[in-house]
Queue: 4 jobs
Job 1
Amino acid sequence: DAEITQSPRHKITETGRQVTLACHQTWNHNNMFWYRQDLGHGLRLIHYSYGVHDTNKGEVSDGYSVSRSNTEDLPLTLESAASSQTSVYFCASSESRGFMSTEAFFGQGTRLTVV
Amino acid sequence: AQSVTQLGSHVSVSEGALVLLRCNYSSSVPPYLFWYVQYPNQGLQLLLKYTSAATLVKGINGFEAEFKKSETSFHLTKPSAHMSDAAEYFCAVSALKNAGNMLTFGGGTRLMVKP
């Protein structure tokens, strides 16, 4: 069965370190997204990609970067981790169907703690 | 620009009672609307979606939602709550950009079901 997997599921890192969270999907979806989930804020969009070599900034992109070298993967990098980036991170993917909106499939999440 | 407001960050109902979770949206274009459910320590799972067909949408686990354009609402209901419905629920609106789509989420509503 197709799926979307995130790794690691839990990560503790120190302030100032670079951290990369992995996201891998086997749906062959063109669209991939990174969200962060914080109490009271729901999910907020960090970065997104509509295809290989395409990346775009979302609502809360400062301090984060992504790259899309193939269809399956969209790693999220925290350049210099800060305590404000302690959060649960979700990766999602969806299919492009012209102007029809399709549902997004979510990974299990990565809980990141910056100490 | 688009946004979603979920009224009530916490809703408590008794088992067997009606569940009503409120969602209002704003969108500059005809919206696609979604309800997702999140169980503890899991990713988000699609409950149902509105994509400009029938205004009353039926989803999984006995949930349904009605799109009301005049009220810019997409409230989620279930006639009889079950203990297993306890979870966090997110309403989301989709905007189309180029050939892709992204979701904007509300803040979430935590549903508690009392025995």
Job 2
Amino acid sequence: EAQVTQNPRYLITVTGKKLTVTCSQNMNHEYMSWYRQDPGLGLRQIYYSMNVEVTDKGDVPEGYKVSRKEKRNFPLILESPSPNQTSLYFCASGVNGNSPLHFGNGTRLTVT
Amino acid sequence: AQKITQTQPGMFVQEKEAVTLDCTYDTSDQSYGLFWYKQPSSGEMIFLIYQGSYDEQNATEGRYSLNFQKARKSANLVISASQLGDSAMYFCAMRDEDTGNQFYFGTGTSLTVIP
């Protein structure tokens, strides 16, 4: 089944403790991206990647890192999480930048 | 400036009626893509419909159609014959080639279908 898989679905952590949210797609998509969803703000793009080893900042990249070493994986790294990074995070992929995005099921992160 | 504006935080529609969800966008690029996504209460994001900036015909997908008015920079979603399962958040989004294929989403419209 074609899908984007994010893990974990729920994560509660403390300020400053490094964490990684994994994202993997099995559709051989070139384009992958991360978003955060906050009430009243919609979805905001954090980082995106047009292909392996190519990553670009979205609208809200501060406090986040990504890497794209393989086509299928695009992990989101929070080196030192802060409470303002408490949010619902989505990973998405697409054939390319022009095609519709396929979304993962989301990761609800709480930083205390 | 907001790239995508959805001015209707909440909408109600009677079952079997049609409803239009508004979306305006801001870009100086000639090449861009417009998308609509549905987010039910379960949280997943579901792609509904796509319109390319060079497409002359309005996009349609089943009960969904996109009313694309390029000069007005609007891309309204029309849902015909509303069903109870259409109750959800709806997000308009734009892929902007000017900014290197960044995606921009609106703040969403919550649609409630009344039986």
Job 3
Amino acid sequence: QKEVEQNSGPLSVPEGAIASLNCTYSDRVSQSFFWYRQYSGKSPELIMSIYSNGDKEDGRFTAQLNKASQYVSLLIRDSQPSDSATYLCAVNLENTGFQKLVFGTGTRLLVSP
Amino acid sequence: EPEVTQTPSHQVTQMGQEVILRCVPISNHLYFYWYRQILGQKVEFLVSFYNNEISEKSEIFDDQFSVERPDGSNFTLKIRSTKLEDSAMYFCASNGRVSADTQYFGPGTRLTVL
């Protein structure tokens, strides 16, 4: 069973702080990794994608990937109350050449004003 | 900005009835997917579709489920005989010419089976 694990939270941070979200995955052949944000009752919205080891920055967001440790994280700098949502880690299993995203259960982030 | 659309936004049906959920993927995308999310649970892969055929399906996607691309724009998910446990949000997703591209999700259809 190929799994993606996340702490369900909630992770509570004050406005302006850095929020750190973590994810581990079990399948070593995974090639691409995604962070989606999901507001309650809404669909997943892409935040970041990352394909190679290291850091990738986009505005206030930084994704970090360590394939040896099978670990991917998302840092949100200068957290805002509007960042309060569930953050889903998704891993793409590309064994067949086609995508099959496996999602974690998500980490609920609460940013207090 | 192009987006995936889904209809209806909410479907209520009686157990045993057939439902068809509709999706219009982003126009130049070639890979299409259905996922579902039972309330309070994780998003689960159902099926992927490329070149007018299923490329992969999960164990959830049994004989009660089928997908179709009836024309150049729509992508449908049919559940032949709904069960109570089919109640969930169903998300359609698509991605572009390269299979490793990011998947973009539609707003979802909330299916309620009574």
Job 4
Amino acid sequence: RKEVEQDPGPFNVPEGATVAFNCTYSNSASQSFFWYRQDCRKEPKLLMSVYSSGNEDGRFTAQLNRASQYISLLIRDSKLSDSATYLCVVSLNTGNQFYFGTGTSLTVIP
Amino acid sequence: SAVISQKPSRDICQRGTSLTIQCQVDSQVTMMFWYRQQPGQSLTLIATANQGSEATYESGFVIDKFPISRPNLTFSTLTVSNMSPEDSSIYLCSVGDNRDIIKAFFGQGTRLTVV
């Protein structure tokens, strides 16, 4: 079983739409959770950390459910520039264990 | 966050040869890692580069194939040895920023094609 599982998509949504991505992780000892964004032919870049209380950064909202081992990312009012692959990342905080999901592809259509 | 410079950004190499990828960070970092991202796949950790000692390799990766150096806290190299077409991939250097919770930051990646 993979450490982190995501729906690969693709998600094709119109501008202005709201889209949600989900991710599950298998190791209950996981301590830190993140969403990364990866543009085509670019390196992954940290989008936001995910906290147990949930957190929001502008149009982006991340949620963590430790009991269900489930992470989500909600993007409101989608922009063309949101088109990318979104990677769910989990860490054990032991120094070197970052586990990456396969990524969810999003295309925002004019 | 740390600024990470990785080079070369891309290369096309003949099978049987070796390529060394460099990763330079603008500040001292405790943790440096090397990842591989094959086409259409997510990132797979190759090894943790340890300053002053041998790298720690993940299952499926060995030092003879992927020798790693880390002479100081700002620099590391990954060599892909005796390359075959199956080694064609993106190789990414990553550093851990542990000022609050540990986060991973990446170099621009090296796109390797083996012919």
